[in-house]
Amino acid sequence: MSILTIILIALLVILLFRVGLSILRFLIYVGLVLLCIYLGYQGLIWLLDFFQINSGFLPHFQINN
Q1: DSSP secondary-structure letter at 58?
Q2: Is the sign of the CA dihedral 11, 12, 18, 19 positive or negative?
Q3: Which parts of the chain fold into alpha helices (H)?
C-alpha cells in the first residue's frame, strides 16, 4: 500500500468515528428526552390517582414483561 492509501484510510476511520460519536450522542439525548416525558406522564397519572381525580381522559400505557 502506498502512503497516500494509508493516510486516506486513517482519515476515513477518523471521520467515521466522529460521525458515529455524534449519532450516538444524538440517540442518547433522544432516549433521555423520551424517558423524561414517560416519567413525567407516569408521575401525573400517579398524582391523579393519589388524589383520586378521575383520569379517564388520559390513555394508560403498561409495559408487560
Answers
A1: S
A2: positive
A3: 3-50
CB 45 within 8 A of CB 55: yes
Q: How far is CA 35 from the centre of its chain?
A: 8
Question: How far is Cα 17 from Cα 30, in angstroms, rounded to an integer?
Answer: 20
pLDDT along the chain (65 residues), means of 10: 90 90 93 96 88 73 66
**Per-domain residue ranges of the chain:** 17-51
* pLDDT single digits (tens) 6-21: 999 999 999 888 889 9
Cell of 64: 408487560
pTM of the full structure: 0.63
